[in-house]
Specification:
The complex is a heterodimer. Chain A is mainly α. Chain A has helices at 9-14, 27-37, 49-53, 64-73, 76-81, 93-97, 104-117, 123-135, 143-151, 168-177, 180-192. Chain B is built from 21 helices and 34 strands. Classes of the chains: A mainly alpha, B alpha/beta.
């Protein structure tokens, strides 16, 4: 630090070492992601069809192509700690169009699973878990929606756990089995106190 | 000395080939085999292939084991058996040890069987007294990390080969005469070049073309990369040469209907589709003096039926009686009977020339040829299947072949490059490379179509040259500029101002008002998604084998690879040959090829196809089936099983027996395996030989 002699923090970040070192790559990571995603990210030829299809890319720094590249090279830490990992909307446009028949969306989902095992996950995702646990919905119905539904001639609540609340314990049982709720509660507590 | 003696012996036996082979089965009746095996003295030669084999197994252990196998009289090993010294080892051992058979344990017979057969012959034995044990492709290469297992497997392979070598018979290749004529199917640049080469070598050549004119895809192109020659200008002289060459019998608007026979003697039936128009020659033959079509075009002027011209990719009209473009060879009108309404206006205007016959039907012509070349070419992949690019949905998305016609001076717009929606010259043009190529989704082609990069560079150049101020954008994944002066051409186009964007286009949207197009891609080098508004999009669509390729290849018994391209005999060392003797491949029917490669391939195919014709006869591998007439019940069940129509039932001495046309028989063994009476003897793969191999394997060497 001292040798940079008082450069501003932003410049210091710009001047950091950017080499990819052999030690950064982990072949096991590539294998694990392929196994979970049941896809073939190592076959990517970096054409960019995925990023060009991506509704997230034009309005964020999320680059699905770069994530697939990181998997191919086994850059585990770089991939899992990049907060962009959570900007995929899972619309599957990239999966539809990938000329190499890779499912980039599933690759992202696989990495999210691996990240979660390390407690790397944004709090809003965990709040979704909590919402599912209590209501059976990631985005529960609200009064505005209910009014709109009634106006369109539908029941105020959809025929899901909103209407059949007796099925909520079943959902809770699944989430409890995988300790998803407990982990979510724990991490939220750690972050928000 | 020894060698000379052998040759003489072979020569003297050649005359009696037929007799010897016919007698072979009777002589080698199953009961006599063990007796024969006892007399066999087999030499085993184990090849190290450097470390290819020796690195994965214990050669000494295999050698020691081979010495214990019954009938083995001599065992040796050498670093490279296929080398001259290696072959000398075999030659010497045969003489010194009075060997009756040779086994070489080495690579695949596909590679070196001919080499070791020659070595066996040099040693004074019949070349068919040789058997190969494959201990490389089927052993050391696949069991690289299992030394012990590989060694055991090699022992098995040697034992099995020795069992067969002990029972091998002398065989003599059969010679058949070759008809001094050839056929070329398809008259694009490949077929034309092949036909010209054959004809100039003095061979009568039938050139068959399904469309009304020769010239093929190349005649649709405006300019050719990287020299920028006008395509028609360099092609038409060749077309005229083909039309004039005395040795070429040109049959346009014709298709191959059926093929019978084998190398040297193909009987081909050709369907001459009803053209409705007589050539000058045909008219003369019918006694119409001064008649026949002279290409005046009066008929076209009066014809009331309008159809799209396929030569112009449907962008220009033609009549029901038409020529595709002004430079057609032969200059002869054709009636499209699908759309002709038989109003007879053309007949009237044609008058005394009497060239038009509206009641014509297809005719069939039979010709005999010694060899044939397939040059059936390619079609454009239906790129509308990739719905994200909107071809056929958005007016201003066109294919590269449509671009060629639009920029060509003789094309539908007279060479004025305009966009289809409004006839206005475009200012920004996007070229999409790999449009359907390098695509593993199943909706597309997994291969590289090979010339799209280069013609798209050429298109960019043509725009810049013809229309100052136009900006071409080339969306690419890799620029594959592999040929002579191609990379230099790439440099030139970049210098001229084309913009290269390294990213594949994900989708295109149309502005319904302006009909402009929004092109979405990831500029992977800038690492930013891109939305580019352009006036025209040109899809460098993938190519695929021409529509009728599958039908034609089946007629000639040629295989195709997984993607439909016709299969060559060897991808590197025999790219023009096929697995059917006497049938060769030229041009893009084998794989995507640009013009220089197509012409080179055509000249290669012509050269290969002329060899049997110039030699005058071909030697066939003597692997054919032989009928043991005493055992044959004449049931005829084998006749229908034969995939090569080589078998027939004949009357002999008052009863029916099967007869093999040896030149047609490929020795596949279908009949031999099936015959309920065991009356069919497969030369070189005879039942006792195969049983001995199986026994050797199952009994592990115990007798």
């Amino acid at each position: 630090m001292a040798r940079i002699k008082g450069y501003p923090e932003a410049l210091e970040a710009k001047l950091r070492d950017r080499y990819v070192y052999g030690e950064d790559t982990n072949g096991k990571f590539t294998e694990t992601v392929e196994k979970i995603s049941m896809s073939i990210p190592h076959m990517c030829y970096q054409c960019g069809t995925c990023t060009a299809s991506c509704p997230s890319a034009p309005r964020s720094s999320y680059r699905i192509r770069k994530f697939v590249r990181r998997v191919a090279l086994g850059l585990e830490t770089e991939a899992l700690t990049d907060p962009d990992l959570w900007l995929c909307t899972t619309c599957y446009s990239c999966t539809d169009r990938c000329p190499r028949d890779i499912a980039p969306t599933d690759v992202i989902m696989a990495m999210r699973n691996l990240a979660f095992k390390r407690d790397i996950i944004p709090v809003n995702f965990l709040k979704t878990v909590q919402a599912i646990y209590t209501t059976g919905h990631g985005v529960p119905n609200n009064d505005v929606n209910r009014a709109a539904r009634v106006k369109l001639g539908m029941d105020a609540d959809p025929p899901t756990t909103h209407t059949y609340k007796e099925f909520i314990p079943g959902i809770q049982k699944i989430l409890d089995y995988y300790k998803l709720k407990a982990n979510a509660d724990r991490i939220v507590k750690e972050r928000e106190g | 000395m020894a060698e000379r003696k052998t040759k003489k012996e072979t020569a003297s036996t050649k005359d009696t080939t037929a007799a010897v082979t016919k007698q072979a089965p009777a002589k080698a009746a199953i009961g006599e085999q063990p007796q024969k095996a006892k007399e066999a003295r087999v030499g085993v030669f184990i090849c190290h292939c450097g470390t290819n084999i020796a690195g994965s197994m214990d050669i000494n252990a295999v050698q020691d084991y081979a010495k214990t196998i019954p009938n083995v009289a001599y065992v040796d090993n050498y670093k490279y058996m296929c080398s001259m010294p290696g072959q000398a080892v075999i030659d010497k051992a045969i003489h010194e040890n009075k060997l009756t058979g040779v086994v070489v344990a080495a690579c695949s017979p596909r590679l070196h069987e001919p080499t070791f057969r020659t070595a066996t012959k040099e040693g004074g034995l019949n070349p068919f007294k040789f058997e190969m044990a494959n201990i490389r492709e089927q052993n050391s290469w696949v069991h690289m990390h299992d030394q012990e297992g590989a060694t055991d497997k090699a022992k098995d392979a040697v034992r099995i080969a020795v069992a067969k070598a002990s029972l091998l018979e002398d065989l003599f290749p059969k010679s058949v005469p070759v008809e001094k004529a050839a056929m070329v199917v398809g008259a694009g640049i490949a077929g034309m070049q092949a036909a010209l080469d054959l004809a100039n070598a003095g061979i009568k050549t039938y050139l068959i073309e399904k469309t009304p004119t020769i010239g093929g895809r190349m005649s649709q192109l405006d300019k050719t990369f990287p020299t920028l020659d006008c395509s028609q200008c360099i092609l038409t002289p060749k077309m005229v040469d083909v039309g004039r060459n005395e040795n070429i019998e040109l049959m346009t608007y014709s298709e191959v209907e059926s093929v019978e026979g084998y190398i040297g003697n193909f009987d081909v039936t050709i369907r001459k589709k009803a053209r409705g128009v007589l050539s000058v020659g045909e008219a003369e033959a019918m006694g119409i003096v001064g008649g026949g079509c002279n290409g005046c075009g009066d008929c076209e002027a009066v014809c009331p039926v309008v159809q799209p011209n396929t030569f112009e990719e449907g962008m220009k009209p033609r009549k029901a009686i038409y020529i595709q473009h002004p430079q057609v060879v032969p200059l002869l009108y054709t009636i499209d009977f699908e759309s002709c309404i038989k109003c007879e206006l053309c007949v009237k205007i044609c008058g005394e020339k009497k060239a038009i016959e509206l009641n014509k039907e297809d005719e069939f012509v039979k010709v005999k040829v010694g060899t044939a070349i397939l040059a059936t070419g390619y079609d454009i992949f239906p790129v509308e299947n990739k719905t994200e690019w909107g071809y056929k949905r958005y007016e201003n998305v066109i294919t590269s072949l449509e671009f060629e016609r639009l920029i060509c001076a003789s094309g539908p717009t007279g060479g004025h490059m305009v966009r289809p929606s409004d006839g206005v010259a475009p200012k920004r043009v996007a070229f999409l490379l790999c449009a359907g190529s390098r695509d593993n989704t199943g909706n597309g082609k997994p291969y590289c179509s090979r010339f799209c990069c280069m013609y798209s560079l050429k298109h960019a150049h043509q725009l810049i040259e013809k229309m100052p101020g136009v900006q071409p954008y080339i969306f690419y994944m890799d620029i594959r500029s592999f040929g002579k002066m191609y990379e230099e051409f790439y440099y030139r186009i970049q210098d001229e101002g084309a913009k290269f964007i390294r990213g594949r286009v994900s989708n295109i949207l149309e502005d319904p008002g302006s009909k402009n197009l929004m092109v979405f891609a990831d500029d992977t080098l800038l690492d930013r998604p891109m939305k580019l508004e352009v006036d025209l999009v040109v899809l460098a669509a993938a190519i695929q084998p021409a529509a009728d390729t599958n039908r034609t290849r089946k007629l000639f018994g040629v295989s195709c690879s997984m993607d439909g391209w016709l299969l060559e005999a060897h991808p590197k060392l025999n790219p023009c040959g096929t697995t059917t003797a006497g049938v060769f491949l030229a041009g893009a029917c084998q794989a995507p090829k640009d013009i220089p490669d197509t012409v080179a391939s055509a000249e290669g195919a012509a050269s290969a196809a002329s060899i049997p014709i110039h030699v005058g006869h071909v030697e066939l591998e003597p692997y054919f089936a032989v009928c043991i007439e005493e055992k044959c019940a004449g049931c005829g069940m084998c006749v229908n099983l034969c995939p090569y129509t080589a078998l027939a039932l004949i009357e002999k001495d008052g009863r029916k027996v099967m007869q093999v046309t040896e030149a047609k028989c490929k020795g596949c063994g279908t009949c031999g395996g099936f015959c309920p009476g065991g009356a069919i003897w497969m030369n070189h793969f005879a039942t006792p030989q195969i049983i001995a191999q199986i026994d050797a394997f199952l009994l592990g060497g115990e007798q």
